[in-house]
Amino acid sequence: MKQDIRKLTAVQLKDWFTKNGEQGFRAKQVHEWLWKKSASSFEQMTNLSLSTREVLNANFEIRPLTVDQQQKSNDGTIKSSFKLFDGNLVEGVLIPALRNDDLDRMTACVSSQVGCSLTCKFCATGYMDRKRNLDAAEIYDQVVAIDRQAKENYDAPLTNIVYMGMGEPLLNYKNVLESVDRITSPDGLGMSPKRITVSTAGIAKMIRQLGDDAVKFNLALSLHAANDQKRDQIMPINESNTLEALGDALAYFYKKTGTRITFEYILFYNFNDTLQDAQELWKFTKRVPAKVNIIEYNPIAEANFKNTDPQTLDKFAGYLESKGVIVNVRRSRGKDIDAACGQLAGKKV
Ligand code: SF4
């Protein structure tokens, strides 16, 4: 089997070229084709000689993901099912957002694993098995494909990327950080890391690691309950990563990076939507500079949770705001095509 050329670092690529009697600067050209121009075949590398392209073809392959299916929601959201080289499928979503009738944001939501090993009770992916981690190129390719959709459908490039699709990004730490590097590097897509948010269900040890690695992107914690007993019920990862441990890890992350945390909170009807829950959330947010995104829930067939009602939501958000917490209420997008948060499960149309 030929080697996947995108698994080589720039240095390894250069070594390979010099060992094989090719000029070193060719490695830089190839690297640029792979990560800056997102080439999906050696034939596209037109500034390389035909013989160099043939040598590359004989030794390596590029494994681009392909769009298997694409669905457009009534609200303009586009969900794609991407096929990986081994036949596995993952999903990614383009979410265009308007402000005053103008396009304000073009957000790509990408997956980091095929399936997920965490079994959050409200999430469709949590009912699938985790099959494998995505490599950096597979995450990068989702961004490239969704950026292409943004340009084709809305004549605008991506402005933001969230790692909030299938999988727990911090359980695929190395590849996720490598993909961010390819997306943000001047030798790659050159996007600002401040436009990227990695969302975790809460792996305290890896949140600390992000701090030690002084990452420049944003971090979101899917909190959904600021009370261990309730959080244990909906997110079993909380049993080994308690709120106390997560709070300490987030404080450490903030100390090392200076980046404010985003807490994601779904208001489930009759579960975590009382004023006492709001009070617990407020107390937890005080541990670290943070803002709260309240996310509308999208019921899934596998579970019985329901979205709270608008009045309760207003009271909950109002309480937090009265305490000085920055609160955004995020309406759900792409519900009609199962593209909303927690609904990605590789369902065939
Ligand atoms: S919410 Fe995220 S971490 Fe939890 S099961 Fe779903 S994909 Fe996995």
Automatic annotation (TrEMBL):
Record-annotated active site: E91 (proton acceptor), C341 (s-methylcysteine intermediate)
Residues annotated for S-adenosyl-L-methionine binding in this entry: G167, E168, S199, S222, L223, H224, N298
Domain Radical SAM core span(s) in chain numbering: 102-336
Enzyme category, top tier: transferase
Catalytic activity: adenosine(2503) in 23S rRNA + 2 reduced [2Fe-2S]-[ferredoxin] + 2 S-adenosyl-L-methionine = 2-methyladenosine(2503) in 23S rRNA + 5'-deoxyadenosine + L-methionine + 2 oxidized [2Fe-2S]-[ferredoxin] + S-adenosyl-L-homocysteine; adenosine(37) in tRNA + 2 reduced [2Fe-2S]-[ferredoxin] + 2 S-adenosyl-L-methionine = 2-methyladenosine(37) in tRNA + 5'-deoxyadenosine + L-methionine + 2 oxidized [2Fe-2S]-[ferredoxin] + S-adenosyl-L-homocysteine
Binding site for [4Fe-4S] cluster: C116, C120, C123
Cofactors that this protein relies on: [4Fe-4S] cluster
GO BP, sorted A to Z: rRNA base methylation; tRNA methylation
Cofactor binding note: Binds 1 [4Fe-4S] cluster. The cluster is coordinated with 3 cysteines and an exchangeable S-adenosyl-L-methionine.
EC number: 2.1.1.192
Cell compartment(s), UniProt: Cytoplasm
Gene Ontology CC: cytoplasm
Entry's Gene Ontology molecular function annotations: 4 iron, 4 sulfur cluster binding; metal ion binding; rRNA (adenine(2503)-C2-)-methyltransferase activity; rRNA binding; tRNA (adenine(37)-C2)-methyltransferase activity; tRNA binding
Keyword list, A-Z: 4Fe-4S, Cytoplasm, Disulfide bond, Iron, Iron-sulfur, Metal-binding, Methyltransferase, rRNA processing, S-adenosyl-L-methionine, Transferase, tRNA processing
Keyword Cell membrane recorded: no
Role, per record: Specifically methylates position 2 of adenine 2503 in 23S rRNA and position 2 of adenine 37 in tRNAs.
HAMAP family membership: RNA_methyltr_RlmN
Misc. remarks from the entry: Reaction proceeds by a ping-pong mechanism involving intermediate methylation of a conserved cysteine residue.
Family per similarity comment: Belongs to the radical SAM superfamily. RlmN family.
Protein known as: Probable dual-specificity RNA methyltransferase RlmN
Organism of provenance: Spirosoma fluviale
Native organism taxonomy: Bacteria, Pseudomonadati, Bacteroidota, Cytophagia, Cytophagales
Encoding gene, per UniProt annotation: rlmN
